[in-house]
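User: Hey, my collaborator sent me this sequence without any context and asked if I could get a structure. I don't really work with proteins. Can you help?
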Amino acid sequence: MKPTYSYRLRRFRRTILFGVVRRYSAFKRIFPATAPLAVQRFDCGEERASELMIFLPGVGDVLEDFERNRFMEAVCASKRPADMVVVDVHAGYYFHASVLERLHEDVIAPARASGHRSIWLVGISLGGFGALLYAMENTQDIQGLMLLAPYLGERTLIAEIATAGALRSWQPDEVAIGDHARRLWSWLKRVYATSSDRPAPRVYLGYGNRDSFARGNALLAEYLPADRVFIVPGGHDWKTWRELWRAMLARRDAEPPPPPLELAQSS
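Assistant: No problem. I've predicted the 3D structure and written it out in C-alpha cell form, which is a compact way to encode the shape of the chain:
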C-alpha cells in the first residue's frame, strides 16, 4: 500500500474535485477521465476462478479502499472465492460520460475473452449507480450486482417516486436521454417492479438505516427478495459497509450461483 499521508491526501483531493465540478460543470477538465482505467487485481489462489467481481468505488474513494477494509479478504474466506478487480472509476468518468465505455473496453470485455463465465459488479455509493447503469445498458454481460448504499438520484426524484406510493405506481414523464437517474428508475420498474420476462441480474442490496440514501434504497428494496436486502444500524461509511459486505457474502454463499454467461444468454 502507498503511505498513509498520500492515501489521505488523494481521498481529500477527490472529494474536493467532485464538489467543484458538480457545482461548476465547466471545470470538468480538472477532473480528467484517462484511458485505459487504472485497475488493481486480486485473486484467492493460483488458478483462475470462473467468477469475477469488479469493484466500483464511491466519490472520495481510491483504489486501495476496498483492500484496506478487508473486502478482498472476506471474498477469499467465503465459500465461493472469486477473482477480483478494483477499477478506478472516480467521479471524473461520470462527469465525462465515459464510465460505461471504459468499464466495457478495459475490464469486462477482456474478462469475458479470458474465460470468466460469471461477472459481478460491486458498487458503493456512486459506484452502485455506475454498476446499475452498466447493467441497464449491458444486461447480457452481468450475472449479479452487490450494491452498498447506492446513489439512486437526487432527492427530488426520490420524493417523486415515494409520493406515487411505490415504484410500481410511479408514472415517469418522457425521459430525456441525458437524465440517467430517471432512465435508471424506469428500467428498474420494468425489470424488477413489474412481472417481466426480461433478463435481469441478481441483486443484493445493503445500506445503513441512517444513510442519507436510505429512502431511495428502500424504494428499490421493496421489489427485491427479502433475504437479499440487508439493513443495519449505521450511516454512509466504511464501518457500516464492512458489516453489510460480510452479511451479503454469507447470503451469496448460501444460494446457487446464477447461470454462467453462455447459459444466461441462451435461456
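In plain terms: The two ends are 43 Å apart (CA to CA). You can pass these C-alpha cells on to your collaborator as they are.
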